[in-house]
Specification:
The chain has 226 residues and is an alpha/beta fold. It is built from ten helices and ten strands. An eight-stranded mixed beta sheet has the order 3-2-1-4-5-8-9-10, with helices on both faces. A two-stranded antiparallel ribbon has the order 6-7. Strand 1 (2-6), helix 1 and strand 2 (25-30) form a beta-alpha-beta unit. Helix 4 crosses helix 5 (84-91). The chain binds NADP nicotinamide-adenine-dinucleotide phosphate.
């Protein structure tokens, strides 16, 4: 599949490498290619700059947000949740309409320090805001409840049957995303319903952040036991 990824952070890199490895034709998008390639400092977690990563993954294409979205029949939103709407405006409706948009972003606001709070919650979600702003895009919220390393390798955790969620209005789009998740190793994929159910999965983040504090590691997930 042709896949366009919006976002050069940990999520964009991990999911880009995994999907390329699975045989997809991947393009990763950024605001400004030359500025992103000119960054030489490690990121806030001490990871090497994006320019190093793309050198090691040289078969993955790189372009602007709009070019990555134009490339993809399926587009992944892996931008900072607080500014995802700005990033999607840079992409433009013409590159989004009719396509599947897998939304992984979380609307976390760090402006008052840590732990961050959700800038959207309870009666709305980022997934819904994106769907309302781009009504012809087929938004599927998923993977936002796990760390990037777990996202692309659920088997990293003992017992691969821990849970991942899907929210979206379009049954066909959810079916495509579900197959993609299965190919990545996910087994317990729970379809919660329409895009309003993204409120629930985005609101997992406050407890996720507290668990991260307790375990001092982001490598964990929830398992829904029936
Ligand atoms: N890290 C994880 O393990 C994890 C797990 C689950 C969900 N998430 C969610 O996934 C998303 C990506 O997380 P991340 O850690 O990979 O990276 P991130 O640092 O949150 O996001 C990086 C991307 O956001 C873009 N961006 C930043 N400010 C922007 C602005 N003002 N306008 C437009 N674009 C802007 C950057 O563009 P440039 O490329 O131009 O710099 C970059 O591509 C977030 O919403 C996060 O909450 C993260």
């Amino acid at each position: 599949m042709e896949i366009g990824i919006l976002g050069t952070g940990m999520v964009g890199q991990n999911i880009g490498a995994k999907l390329f490895w699975l045989g997809h034709n991947v393009m990763i998008g950024t605001r400004d290619v030359s500025k992103t390639m000119a960054r030489t400092d490690p990121d806030m977690y001490g990871n090497p700059p994006f320019s190093e990563w793309i050198k090691q993954n040289s078969k993955i294409k790189m372009g602007s947000f709009a070019e990555a979205a134009a490339h993809g029949e399926l587009i992944i939103n892996a931008t900072t949740g607080l500014v995802s709407m700005e990033a999607l405006k840079l992409v433009g409706k013409e590159n989004l309409d009719g396509k599947i948009l897998m939304d992984i972003a979380n609307p976390l606001d760090f402006s008052k320090g840590t732990p961050p709070f959700l800038s959207i919650c309870n009666t709305d979600s980022l997934g819904e805001q994106i769907q309302r702003a781009f009504p012809k895009v087929r938004v599927v919220k998923t993977l936002n409840t796990v760390n990037a390393m777990v996202m692309v390798n659920p088997k990293k955790l003992k017992g691969a049957d821990h849970s991942i969620f899907l929210s979206g209005n379009d049954a066909g789009a959810k079916c495509t995303v579900k197959e993609l998740l299965k190919s990545m190793g996910w087994k317990d994929i729970i379809d919660l319903g329409d895009i309003t159910t993204a409120r629930g999965t985005e609101m997992i983040l406050p407890i996720w952040i507290r668990l991260y504090g307790v375990f001092e590691s982001p490598v964990f997930n929830v398992k829904v036991v029936r």
